[in-house]
C-alpha cells in the first residue's frame, strides 16, 4: 500500500514538474516573440504576446516583467487608437431618410442626428471614452469601449483596407461573458453582418 501511495506521489510530482517546465518554455518563447514585434513597432501584437507570456506563469519573475510591459503598452496603443478615431464620421449603412453622425474627440464620442427636413444636426447622445479593463478569457483587451449603459463596443479601423472607414459593433455587457464574441473577418465584419459603418468626413 505504501509503495502504491509513493508511486502516485511520484507520478503527480513528475507531472507538476513537466507542466512547470512547459510553462517556463512557452513563457520565454512568447516573451522573445513579443520583443521582436516591439522592435518592429507592432505594439498591438507585442502587447498580446507579452500577455500570453505572462499568462503561462503569472507568479514568475519573467511573468511580472511581462505584465509591466502590457501595462506600459496599453495607454500608448489607446492613445494611438483615439488619434485614428478623432474627427467627424457619417453613418454609411442606414436606409432611413435621416442622417447620423459621430464626432470623436480626445475624451468623448458624440452622436448626432440630422432629420431630412432639418438644416442642422441635433446632439442625441454623448459617451465618455472609457476603455474596458476586464480581459475576455486569455485575450487581453485594449480596444473595447464601455458605454454608460454598461455595453461594450468595438471601434475599428482596418489600416490596410481604408483608414477613412470606421467599423463599430456591440459585443456584450461588462462582466457577462456568456455571450461569446463572434468571429471577425479582416474587414471588420462579423459572422452575422451586424456592423455599423461610418465614413470619415472631417479630420480633427
Question: How would you sum up this structure, described in words?
Answer:
The chain has 204 residues and is an alpha+beta fold. It has three helices and eight strands. Strands 4-3-2-1-8-7-6-5 form an eight-stranded antiparallel sheet. Helix 1 runs antiparallel to helix 2 and helix 2 runs antiparallel to helix 3. The longest helix is centred in the first third of the chain and has 38 residues, at 2-39. It starts with a helix and ends with a strand. Residues 2-18 and 175-192 have low confidence and may be disordered.
Protein topology:
Layout: H1 2-39, H2 43-56, H3 61-85, E1 87-91, E2 99-104, E3 108-114, E4 122-128, E5 145-146, E6 151-156, E7 165-173, E8 196-202
Antiparallel strand pairs: 1-2, 1-8, 2-3, 3-4, 5-6, 6-7, 7-8
Helix pairs in contact: 1-2, 2-3
Concise description?
The chain is built from 3 helices and 8 strands; from the N terminus they run αααββββββββ. With 204 residues, the protein is α+β, with helices and mostly antiparallel strands. It folds into 2 domains: 2-74, no CATH class; 86-202, no CATH class.
Amino acid at each position: 500500500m505504501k509503495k502504491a501511495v509513493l508511486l502516485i506521489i511520484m507520478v503527480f510530482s513528475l507531472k507538476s514538474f513537466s507542466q512547470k517546465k512547459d510553462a517556463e518554455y512557452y513563457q520565454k518563447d512568447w516573451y522573445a516573440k513579443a520583443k521582436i514585434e516591439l522592435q518592429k513597432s507592432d505594439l498591438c501584437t507585442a502587447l498580446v504576446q507579452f500577455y500570453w507570456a505572462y499568462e503561462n506563469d503569472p507568479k514568475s519573475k519573467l511573468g511580472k516583467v511581462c505584465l509591466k510591459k502590457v501595462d506600459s503598452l496599453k495607454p500608448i496603443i489607446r492613445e494611438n487608437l483615439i488619434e485614428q478615431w478623432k474627427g467627424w464620421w457619417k453613418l454609411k449603412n442606414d436606409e432611413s431618410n435621416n442622417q447620423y453622425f459621430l464626432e470623436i474627440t480626445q475624451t468623448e464620442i458624440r452622436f448626432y442626428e440630422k432629420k431630412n427636413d432639418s438644416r442642422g444636426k441635433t446632439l442625441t447622445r454623448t459617451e465618455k471614452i472609457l476603455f474596458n479593463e476586464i480581459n475576455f478569457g486569455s485575450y487581453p483587451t485594449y480596444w473595447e469601449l464601455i458605454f454608460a449603459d454598461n455595453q461594450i463596443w468595438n471601434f475599428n479601423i482596418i489600416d490596410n483596407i481604408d483608414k477613412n472607414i470606421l467599423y463599430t459593433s456591440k459585443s456584450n455587457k461588462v462582466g457577462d461573458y456568456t455571450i461569446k464574441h463572434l468571429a471577425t473577418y479582416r474587414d471588420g465584419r462579423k459572422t452575422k453582418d451586424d456592423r455599423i459603418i461610418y465614413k470619415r468626413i472631417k479630420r480633427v
